[in-house]
Specification:
By secondary structure, the protein is α/β, with parallel strands linked by helices. The protein is built from 13 helices and 11 strands.
Length: 304
C-alpha cells in the first residue's frame, strides 16, 4: 500500500513533527470551479489551514501515485488541465495502474486520507441522493464512503441540487452521524437552513472533536458529517436558488445528462443563472469550512 502514497515535503514534515493535518479534495479544483478562481481558492484554503494551526494536504492522483499534498506547480496544473478524470472509489485502482491524472471526489479523498492517517477533511458540500433517485438509482458514492471510512467531513451540508431529505434518510440508515455546527438544521450549501433537523448540535469544536474521538475509540466504523452553514453575508435567497436549481435540473433532464456529469453541469448552470453569485458563495463556504475544520483537527489532535 505504501508504494502508492507520495507525501509532499510539507505533509511529511508535519507527520514527523506530529502536527495536525487537514485533507482537502482536488475535484473542487478540476471540476468544481473555473480557472483561475479554482487555483486561487485552493491556495487560499491551504493558507487558512496553515494560519489556524494545521498543515493542508490537498489530495490527487498523479503519475501512478496518490499525492498527499500538492506543490504549487501541481495545483496550477490540475487547475488548468482538461484531461483530469473525476476519481471516486471505483476509479482509483485504474487511474493508479494506468498512471492517469485524477482529481479526487469526497469519497476518494476520504479513502486516500484514511490510508495516509488523516482523519479530518474539509470540502464544500457532500454528494448525496439525487432528485428522482427512486427511478434513476443515482446516489453518490460519498454516502457509502461515510458509512465505512473513518474520516470526518466538514462541509456546508449536501449540495442543494440534491434531494436533501432522502440524503439524510440514507445517512441515518448507514449510521452516519450528522452534526450541525452551531445549527439545529441541515444547511443546504448555498443557503444556511433547510427544514431538515440534524442529529446533534455542537456549539464548539471541542464537542465535535470529543465526539469523533469517542466514536473511533469505540471502533464504530465510518465517518461523520459536520454541517457548517455558509456565512450569513454570502448566503443566497432560498426561493431564488430553488427556482434556479429547478430550471437547471429540467435542462439536465432534457439533455439526458446522467451519472458523474450531473453535478458539474448543474453547478455550472447555477453559476450562469445567478450571474456568478453562486461561485462567490461556493468560495466563501469552502473557506469558512476550512476555518472550522482546522479548529476541529487541532482540537482532536490535542486529545490523542
Amino acid at each position: 500500500m505504501k508504494q502508492y502514497l507520495s507525501f509532499s515535503e510539507e505533509v511529511l514534515a508535519a507527520k514527523e513533527q506530529g502536527k495536525p493535518i487537514v485533507a482537502l479534495e482536488s475535484t473542487i479544483i478540476s471540476h468544481g470551479m473555473p480557472y483561475p478562481q479554482n487555483v486561487q481558492t485552493a491556495r487560499e484554503v491551504e493558507q487558512i489551514v496553515r494560519d489556524h494551526g494545521a498543515v493542508p494536504a490537498t489530495i490527487a492522483i498523479l503519475d501512478g501515485k496518490i499525492k498527499i499534498g500538492l506543490s504549487d506547480d501541481e495545483l496550477e496544473m490540475f487547475g488548468k488541465s482538461s484531461d483530469v478524470a473525476k476519481a471516486s472509489r471505483r476509479d482509483l485502482a485504474y487511474l493508479l495502474a494506468t498512471k492517469k491524472k485524477g482529481a479526487t471526489t469526497v469519497a476518494a479523498t476520504m479513502i486516500c486520507a484514511e490510508l495516509a492517517g488523516i482523519h479530518v477533511f474539509v470540502t464544500g458540500g457532500i454528494g448525496g441522493v439525487h432528485r428522482g433517485a427512486e427511478v434513476s438509482m443515482d446516489i453518490s458514492a460519498d454516502l457509502e464512503e461515510l458509512a465505512q471510512t473513518d474520516v470526518a467531513v466538514i462541509c456546508a451540508g449536501a449540495k442543494s441540487i440534491l434531494d436533501l431529505k432522502l440524503t439524510m434518510e440514507y445517512l441515518e440508515t448507514k449510521g452516519v452521524p450528522v452534526m450541525g455546527y452551531q445549527t439545529d438544521v441541515l444547511p443546504a450549501f448555498y443557503t444556511r437552513t433547510s427544514d431538515i433537523p440534524v442529529n446533534f448540535r455542537a456549539d464548539d469544536v471541542e464537542t465535535v472533536a470529543a465526539t469523533l474521538k469517542t466514536k473511533w475509540d469505540l471502533q464504530l466504523k465510518g465517518g461523520a458529517v459536520i454541517a457548517n452553514p455558509i456565512p450569513v453575508e454570502y448566503a443566497m435567497n432560498e426561493k431564488e436558488i430553488s427556482t434556479v436549481i429547478e430550471s437547471a435540473l429540467k435542462e439536465a433532464n432534457e439533455k439526458n445528462i446522467t451519472g458523474k456529469e450531473v453535478t458539474p453541469f448543474l453547478l455550472g448552470k447555477v453559476k450562469e443563472l445567478t450571474d456568478g453569485k453562486s461561485l462567490e458563495s461556493n468560495i466563501a463556504l469552502v473557506k469558512n469550512n476550512a476555518v472550522v475544520g482546522t479548529q476541529i483537527a487541532v482540537s482532536l489532535h490535542g486529545m490523542k
